[in-house]
Structure to design on (67 residues):
């Protein structure tokens, strides 16, 4: 096991080098996948489609009520 461990109230350090390796690995930039831009485009398109539908229905109901 790596890092700091607690065992029956006693704390011991198992290899300080592994602790610093874990920290440096955690601080690295996360990997970016190829689908990230596709998901962003699809989400943006869906939001615009939903907003357009909501505005269109609102105008339609307003015109129907106005007679």
């Amino acid at each position: 096991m790596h890092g700091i461990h607690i065992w029956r109230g006693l704390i011991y350090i198992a290899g300080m080098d592994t602790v610093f390796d874990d920290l440096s690995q955690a601080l690295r930039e996360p990997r970016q996948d190829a689908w990230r831009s596709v998901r962003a485009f699809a989400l943006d398109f869906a939001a615009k489609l939903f907003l357009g539908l909501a505005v269109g229905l609102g105008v339609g109901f307003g015109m129907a009520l106005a007679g």
